[in-house]
Amino acid sequence: MLCRVVPRWRPRRTGLALASAIGALTMFTGSTAGAAPAAAAPGDIAKVNRLTKQIQQLERQYRGELEELRDTRNDAKRALQKADALRDDLAAARGVVAQLAAARYISNGIEPSVAILATDDPSTMLSGATMADHLSQNHAAKVQQIQALVTAQEKAQQEAGARIDKLEKAIKDLNAQKARVQQLLKKYKPESPSIGMGGITPRMARVKAEIDTEFGPFPIIGCMRAGDPGEHGKGRACDFMESTAGSMPSSARMAHGDQVSNYLIRNGSRMGVMYIIWRQRIYDFRTGAGWKMMGDRGSITQNHYDHVHVSVF
């Protein structure tokens, strides 16, 4: 029997080998995946909350929604949420690797002398490098997953920081425009929605009529939206549709939308236009910054590819 050739000191060496193997796997996952990333810094979350309050204050001062700032704020929040979710996935993946390694040790290495008796080649059980290699191969896919998660989490955290910095700069830039915006607000006095005009303000009704006369007919012109917390609910916005049912407009209708938006830009000061959204871009007369790209909201309609949105003061 094999037990006759097992020296009394071999069980200790085998136990050390197995421990070395488990340690090697831990080192392997650690060196491959890097140090565990930290959660989104509490300071980042607090900063976004503070900036949100600043946006709300500016909206009260500027008498209307600041879609560009809200959009950038939402991008920052999504980036922070993504970083946290990836951190949780990473912790779970590392936990699985640790459990697999522990289970492997318990099933094959709790009694080293028995493992030696059961194998055809006891010498392989004495090689920590061999066992580490075996465990590493078994868990290679999981280790690769960890590496991918580390990279993705670090990228998401960096993106969140960049989004927050962008939001801070946008708020700072808009604050610098206060004097000019105050002049616009003095020029365009507040108006209340009129029941006889479909629930929109007189200013919005004039813009709607002019655009419809110059560029109509449109498939649909949607304005008042009861219950909407934004400009539609206040009677200060209309959507000039270039297609219906959420479909992408034809090239001819896209060109038509370009003509509508360009007309609004040229005549916006006279008409009292506050901002335009078209083709995932926003043109806000309060910032004076020209067209700005917006974040991806998901659908053709949400990204304003099928309609020109117009909000007035």
UniProtKB/TrEMBL annotation:
<keyword id="KW-0732">Signal</keyword>
<feature type="domain" description="ARB-07466-like C-terminal">
    <location>
        <begin position="198"/>
        <end position="305"/>
    </location>
</feature>
<protein>
    <recommendedName>
        <fullName>ARB-07466-like C-terminal domain-containing protein</fullName>
    </recommendedName>
</protein>
<dbReference type="Pfam" id="PF26571">
    <property type="entry name" value="VldE"/>
</dbReference>
<feature type="coiled-coil region">
    <location>
        <begin position="48"/>
        <end position="89"/>
    </location>
</feature>
<feature type="coiled-coil region">
    <location>
        <begin position="157"/>
        <end position="187"/>
    </location>
</feature>
<dbReference type="InterPro" id="IPR058593">
    <property type="entry name" value="ARB_07466-like_C"/>
</dbReference>
<keyword id="KW-0175">Coiled coil</keyword>
<feature type="signal peptide">
    <location>
        <begin position="1"/>
        <end position="35"/>
    </location>
</feature>
